[in-house]
Amino acid sequence: MASSETPSDPVEDGAPPPAHRIVCHLDAALTSRGMTLTELSERTGITMANLSILKNNRAKAIRFSTLTLVCDALDATPAELFSVRP
User: Fold this and answer.
1) Record's superkingdom (predicted)?
2) Domains with residue ranges and CATH for the chain
């Protein structure tokens, strides 16, 4: 690459952005507590759609306020809900 060139942007090239390594364990947390996603939605006020995105590991971010609501409703800690893949 010439000194005047800049590295290509993967988004512009059509390649997907790098994946994150955070894994959400909401499904396991719900199962171990005998709670459904519907019940969690009712307890937290978070939409089913947003909880589903978390549960299926499609979330790119989570607000601390959302995390607090989920943790309180499940009586869980963030460490129980998330891990980092190697």
Assistant:
1) Bacteria
2) 22-84 (1.10.260.40)
